[in-house]
Amino acid sequence: DTAVSQTPKYLVTQMGNDKSIKCEQNLGHDTMYWYKQDSKKFLKIMFSYNNKELIINETVPNRFSPKSPDKAHLNLHINSLELGDSAVYFCASSHRQGGSTDTQYFGPGTRLTVL
Amino acid sequence: AQSVTQLDSQVPVFEEAPVELRCNYSSSVSVYLFWYVQYPNQGLQLLLKYLSGSTLVKGINGFEAEFNKSQTSFHLRKPSVHISDTAEYFCAVSRTGGGNKLTFGTGTQLKVEL
For residue B81, what are the CA distances in angstroms to A61, B13, B89? Predict the structure, then answer.
């Protein structure tokens, strides 16, 4: 049973297109995240949602729009894709909001390549 | 704001040798400390974390780390590595009372050779 799943695993697209990445967790967690890992493997948080409510937005361009239909799902929609958006995007979840001590559980990642 | 420094981008080591991966952090407030491991083409998983109490923390797969407040360090060690330990290792911090935000270091690639 996959705890945090993401689809698709690979995404290759042209500049200017719009694409979405889906994330689901079956851990019963309240908080979900999106991270971006660049080509140098640097990992940086983009967004955090708690029970469908946005709580962290790390100055990400507004071409990126997260959507959380329920607390088990957090999708990432990207408009007008640019070359610099090429990266691996990880979804993660943790038990509760404000849980600085909580373990975050990561999905397998989505490798986005913008041509 | 918090920051994490992992000075070694790559650490090659022979199988069954000991290894230490270094992590230093900077923060004006108390932090919690984590080590995550990323195996090739996979997501991250938690190795261990320091929250409070004993400064020596034991994690999965035989890894341990020691929190040193005076040196603001949280180095990861394993007395004898295995080929299967080849992976990217990330040190991270979260601020006490600062919500769930994790700040990661740039990672250390551990390559175990025969």
Answer: 42, 8, 14
